TrEMBL record:
Keywords: Heme, Iron, Membrane, Metal-binding, Monooxygenase, Oxidoreductase, Transmembrane, Transmembrane helix. One of its GO terms (molecular function) is heme binding. This is Cytochrome P450. Its cofactor is heme. InterPro entries: Cyt_P450, Cyt_P450_CS, Cyt_P450_E_grp-I, Cyt_P450_sf, Cytochrome_P450_fung. SUPFAM superfamilies: Cytochrome P450. PROSITE patterns: CYTOCHROME_P450.
């Protein structure tokens, strides 16, 4: 990066450096987990159009990149408050259309989904990362993408998730045991690595019939490093030439793309290849075998790209969602007590912990999970409501601003689970239902909605009820977790690292069952 700073020094804006670039070009992580770019020609039909407002703090060539600050989501939210639900910002040579109104976003991404389901180009993600636009996450919506997405949707449908429930329950149970034991041994615990192990085991067990024993497991550490590096290369900082072509000289001299290809050739691809191969011969059900059994004809490279999509997206999103949940609940002990009381009542009546199918019997728990995801979200020519969106523009759902939109959520800055008590349908049902009845937008829109949404929701539910049936989350002597700030973490926005105490509830109904709950 020192060489990079020397290269860009001649640019007239003296305050342009890597410290600014990192949070700036990672805006996707802070404001959205979904974006699209259209690829059709302008209609010859003339229409009256409204002008999309542009924030004033734009500089020559770099556009708004220097104005976004270290937390771009908050800056964009402020611009939306000043200028309205749709704004246009310049990210170097690119135009980005930012939307914070769910109704307008629904029209763009769902009603106009055929025109807005393309992905903006990213050198690593579209080439070596996705093995030449294979898989689901980064491939463009051609016929092969449609077939691969249909395959993923089929094998990850709710009815198929049922066969993986025992895996998910075991991982949730082990997660909370680790939390309690670490607290008793060390006085407090940083939950992040434990949550990552939980999520990674859920996705590797369901996809490949493989799991890791602990956070010290060398193979877990290896795969965790592969995930982290993949997300780094998929980030905009690793693809600056797309925003600022002038810095392409850096890639030419210092070989960023060469490093990416070397990483894939020597580390990532051999590991993914072995995972897929082992899965085909493993005992028990898994996603790779289900694809073959379902008659879906994916090539070896498509299977590897899909495996990468599942591991990277499946590990990061669910674990960070739970990290936010724990941090928030530590601030609200009264809500914790209400959650625990509802779970206790179910256990006393049924002699076991609730499973996902019985979620409607713990409506307050569901409401808390939904509110946590709203409160701290993790993700062509289009003529919409009179706005003309320019050809080639990237359309970005401003997640932080959208979830704090007071026109959509009453008292939006208040953490209030009660707002969802009358809307406890599954996230998948809400996402595919009426836009007015959606709870949150973390898993995307329309054709680009996350295929593993049911798996993620089942995992989050299992971990949540395990935690609050067995523990009370308390702050350490250092104080409460910071829930006002955030850290850009690839395609998600993570909490600032924190430690908490998981205090075992000794007289809870769960303790009386001696943990024989499934």
């Amino acid at each position: 990066m020192d060489q990079f700073n020397k290269l860009i020094k001649p640019i007239s804006l003296s305050n342009f450096g890597s410290k600014d670039v990192l949070p700036i070009v990672s805006i996707t992580a802070a404001t959205s987990i979904l974006y699209a770019s259209y690829q059709i020609f302008l209609s010859q039909k003339k229409v009256a159009s409204k002008k999309i407002p542009i924030p004033g703090s734009s500089y020559p060539y770099v556009g708004h990149m220097l104005s976004l600050g270290e937390l771009p989501g908050k800056t964009v939210a402020k611009w939306h408050e000043e200028l309205g639900p749709i704004i246009k910002i310049r990210m170097g040579v690119q135009n980005w259309i930012m939307v914070n109104d769910p109704i307008l976003a629904h029209k763009i991404f769902v009603v106009k989904g055929a025109e807005t389901s393309h992905r903006p180009y990213n050198t690593y993600a579209h080439n070596s990362g996705a093995l030449g636009e294979k898989g689901v996450a980064f491939a463009q919506p051609d016929s092969r993408w449609k077939e691969n997405r249909a395959a993923a949707l089929s094998v990850l449908a709710p009815k198929h998730i049922e066969k993986y429930i025992p895996y998910i329950h075991k991982e949730a149970k082990d997660l909370v045991t680790r939390f309690i034991e670490s607290t008793e041994k060390e006085g407090s615990v940083d939950p992040f690595k434990h949550l990552e192990l939980n999520s990674m085991n859920v996705i590797t067990e369901t996809s490949f019939s493989k799991r890791f024993d602990s956070v010290e497991d060398p193979e877990f550490i290896k795969l965790s490093s592969i995930v982290e590096t993949t997300m780094l290369y998929c980030g905009a900082e690793s693809d600056l030439a797309n925003f600022l072509p002038i810095v392409s000289i850096y890639d030419y001299f210092f070989g960023n793309q060469a490093d990416q290809k070397k990483f894939n050739l020597n580390e990532r691809n051999p590991y993914l290849r072995s995972l897929v191969k082992e899965a085909t011969y493993a005992k028990g059900p898994n996603v790779i075998k289900a694809l073959e059994e379902g008659g879906f004809k994916l090539t070896d490279e498509e299977l590897m790209a899909l495996a990468s999509d599942l591991i990277v997206a499946g590990t990061d999103t669910a674990s960070i969602t739970l990290a936010w949940n724990i941090a928030i609940m530590c601030h609200y002990p009264d809500i914790q007590r209400k959650v625990s009381a509802e779970i206790d009542q179910f256990i006393e009546s049924n002699g076991r912990i609730p499973n996902f199918k019985e979620r409607e019997q713990v409506p307050y728990c569901i409401s808390v999970m939904k509110e946590s995801m709203r409160y701290k979200p993790t993700t062509t020519f289009v003529y919409v409501d009179g706005y003309i969106i320019p050809k080639g523009a990237s359309i970005v759902s401003s997640m932080e601003s959208m979830h704090m939109n007071s026109d959509v959520y009453t008292e939006s800055k208040k953490f209030s689970p009660e707002r969802f008590l009358n809307n406890i349908k599954t996230m998948q049902s809400a996402a595919n239902g009426k836009i007015e009845e959606r709870d949150h937008f973390n898993f995307g829109w329309g054709r680009r909605i996350c295929p593993a949404i049911s798996l993620a929701e089942t995992e989050i539910f299992a971990a949540f009820v395990q935690i609050f049936s067995r523990c009370f989350v308390e702050p350490t002597s250092d104080g409460l977790p910071d829930i006002e700030n955030a850290v850009n973490s690839g395609i998600t926005t993570a909490p600032v690292r924190y430690k908490v105490k998981f205090i075992k509830r000794k007289n809870s109904p769960m303790s009386q069952l001696n943990l024989n709950v499934f």
